Amino acid sequence: MRFYIASEEDILNGKITDIYFLRTKKILKAKGLEDVRVRMEVHVLDLPRGYRWAVYAGLEEALYLLKNKPLNVYSLPEGTLIGENTPVMVVEGNYYDMCELETPLLGILRHYTSVATKAARFKRLALQRTFLYFGLRSAHPAIHPMLDRAAYIGGMDGVSGSFNTETLGVKPSGTMPHALILVFDDEVSAWKAFDEVVEPDVPRIALIDTYHDERFATLEAIRSLGDRLHGVRIDTPRSRRGDIKAIVEEIRWTLKLINKEHVKIYVSGGLSEKTVKELRELVDGFGVGTSITFPPSIDLSMDIVEKYRDGVWVPHTKKGKWPGAKKVWRCGTLDYEITPFDKEPLKCKEELMMLWLHEGRLVRELPKPSEIRSYVLNQLKEAPEPEIEDSR
Question: Residue 161: helix, strand or coil by DSSP?
């Protein structure tokens, strides 16, 4: 028995790739073509139906993959909102030195961008509400740190992984599972045990839907924990009562009657964008999991767009692709001008396609995850609200 996961060493050494890239490298060496110098461009193709923007993510891991190789890497900053047909990265060097890295590079960027984008869509629907990502249990544990990082920089206010202080510099967030209440046989005993044992700086949020009616459980939580109660959480939006909005409205009205409106209401469990939009004026926060872990894929492609011939970069690519490497200049959120790599813009002044690796060495300081998240949130304020999809 074993875990079927790739080691960091195998990824960095190009072992984790598609076989045709290794065969390509073998052919190039046999035919003396190791020094063919190219520029490869990573760009967005189509966005999923109903998507008008995506959050470019995964740059730090992409640079870690390409470091110490004789390559120059240009990229947009991680967290930049992008649209269709937007170049996001240019890798410059001998194709022999990069060919087998295309598979892991695209895998990193596509997966990160897809998860971060879905997180950002949820956050954009309710910017003033708290969002927590609880989706780790729906994915292989080997990628849990990556998922939490992508969701966090995409805009989630908290992530649940116990390791996040080390990997993100962020204290992990979470309440309590139904299992805790089931072990104690009753909700009150579990709530009180949580209050007695867990560190005092962790908000006391009582899970109220294990056994009893949510309104009555809320009142019992207030009686049990008093002013220490921060909020209540409902984890069954598909309740047998059938209408989560009606349940929340009933609890909200009851809190108002007893002058306990400071008690927060959180909803989690199989949430969709549609559900968040329906509840965003009623609840204080959401816990989102599976729909962020398994988002629609943001389609990124990587292609040779230029070759270096006789001391000059020459546009060179396959049909259906725009030849020549490109730069991206920004006038405002989602307002870009794209130019050939060596041309100045006509209207936009902020250059986004910046050099990050020179001959494999990092030449620019990487931002902290919290800084990337702030960058994303500032753009989301000006981005159009997502068109709501019917599925998760």
Answer: coil
List Cα–Cα distances, 184 to 176, 227, 235, in angstroms: 13, 23, 18
- pLDDT for 392 beyond 70: no
Q: Are 75 and 99 in contact (CB under 8 A)?
A: no
Q: Tokens 């947009």 appear where? A: 76
Tell me, which fold does domain 8-116+296-380 have in CATH? nicotinate phosphoribosyltransferase (3.20.140)
Longest dimension (CA), the chain: 82
* Tokens 């409205």 -> residue: 249
CATH of domain 128-293: 3.20.20.70
The model's pLDDT over 165-209, given as tens digits with 9 standing for 90+, comes to: 999 999 999 889 999 999 999 999 999 999 999 999 999 999 998
Q: Judge whether 178 and 235 are in contact, CB under 8 Å.
A: yes
pLDDT over 80 at 390, yes or no: no
E-strand stretches of 110-172 = 130-133, 158-159
pLDDT of residue 94: 98
Tell me the per-residue pLDDT of 208-236, one tens digit each, with 9 for 90 and over.
988 888 999 999 999 999 999 999 999 87
Domain ranges of the chain: 8-116+296-380, 128-293
Give 244: exposed, middle or buried? Use CB within 10 Å, 0-12, 13-18, 19+. Answer: buried
Can you tell me which residue has the tokens 């959050």? 55
- Residue 82, burial from CB neighbour count under 10 angstroms (0-12, 13-18, 19+): buried
Residue 188 structure tokens: 């009150």
Q: What average pLDDT does range 43-63 have in this prediction?
A: 96
0.85 exceeded by pTM: yes
C-alpha 325/C-alpha 291 separation (Å) is 35
Positive or negative, the CA dihedral 9, 10, 16, 17 is: positive
Residue 251 has pLDDT above 50, yes or no: yes
Which conformational region is residue 121 in: left (phi greater than 0), alpha (psi within -120 to 50 degrees), or beta? alpha
Torsion angle, alpha carbons of 374, 380, 382, 383, to 10? 150
The pLDDT tens digits for 19-50 are 999 999 999 999 999 999 999 999 998 899 98
Our CA angle for 243, 246, 248, nearest 5°, is 110
Do 111 and 146 form a contact (C-beta atoms < 8 A)?
A: yes
User: Measured in whole angstroms, how far is the alpha carbon of residue 229 from the centre of its chain?
Assistant: 31
Write the DSSP assignment of 239-289 as a string of letters.
-TT--HHHHHHHHHHHHHHTT-TTSEEEEESS--HHHHHHHTTT-SEEEE-
